[in-house]
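Appendix B, Record 12. Input sequence as logged:
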Amino acid sequence: MLSVVTADGSMESGSLIDEIVREGARRMLAAALEAEVHQYIAELAAETDGAGRRLVVRNGHHRPRTVVTAAGPVEVKAPRVNDKRVDEATGERKRFWSCSGFAWTAPRS
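Logged structural output:
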């Protein structure tokens, strides 16, 4: 993306079309994450605790993060998942990891 830097050092944004493209990219990323979380929760809807409560539920959204795309940087709020299931081998709680390839959703080592 091209940007114009003025004499005083401030940057002028490209054009209206650039903003439209960035907004479209933001909406597509948000929709992809929402669909992925919806599918994950739907697949695990039958898993419940002793009281009949679901072990995997939605829990709002993470704080907004900036993702750099070909259209330029866009801010995306990823949905949160509260997964209360426990891995029997390690004793740690299981977690939702997005397959969308975003760095902030990848497991940390």
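Residues 13-102 form one domain.
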